[in-house]
Amino acid sequence: MKLPCTDLITNQPEKYALTRDFCEVFTEEMNSLYLLCFLLTGDHEKAEKCFVAGLEDSTKGNSVFKQWARSWAKRMIVENAVRIIAPRPNHTKRTFLAAHLEPNSKSGRDREVLIQTVLDLPGFERFVFVMSVLERYSDQDCSVLLGCTLQEISEARLRACLQVAESYTKSDVADPAELIHRGDHSAETLVH
């Protein structure tokens, strides 16, 4: 006996992302996903661990719709970076020293300065800046993923933005707001 629904189900395109879909995402987006790992962890060795763990968790984790594979991969990277670094707000540290920038050639300097400035942020502020400003996570999502209050997220983002602005004031590069808000706000922008 043949059920009428069977043909409909087998002829439909796959709805959920499979291992091969996540492998494609991690291959095609390797540079931007690795940069996201690096910006969050601030260390190449930890970034590699975060990248690999993100791939493993994406392929072995919950089923997600195929069209959500890229955003799910980023989420797995963020969650692994949080596990690896365990950033927590530092309530005693309210001011920061700006990064000391060496003179560089003008080409690509904006990107290099932005990356270095982000890497110079304290761990918690770096996570909040990358997640909320570059990756556009909501304050609520940041709060849940980082295990802190919405107020701590707002304060950390403000401190991070002030440090980024201070760093750019001392350097000879484009306005950081212009770099960050040039269209694509993700860490992928920094790769190109």
What report would you give on this structure?
The protein has 11 helices and no strands. It is an all-alpha fold and 192 residues long. It starts with a helix and ends with a helix. The model is unreliable at 1-12, 93-107, 181-186 and 188-192 (pLDDT under 50).
Strand count, sense and closure of the main sheet?
A: none
Radius of gyration: 19 Å
Overall morphology: globular
The helix/strand order is HHHHHHHHHHH
Kindly report the average pLDDT value: 78
Secondary structure tally, helices: 11
Poorly predicted regions are 1-12, 93-107, 181-186, 188-192
What fraction of the residues are assigned to beta strands by DSSP? under 5%
- Let me know the number of strands: 0
> What structural class is derived from the secondary structure elements?
mainly alpha
Helix content: 55-70%
Q: What is the distance, rounded to the nearest whole angstrom, between the alpha carbons of the first and last residues?
A: 57 Å
Name the features.
192 residues, mainly alpha, 11 helices, 0% strand, disordered C terminus
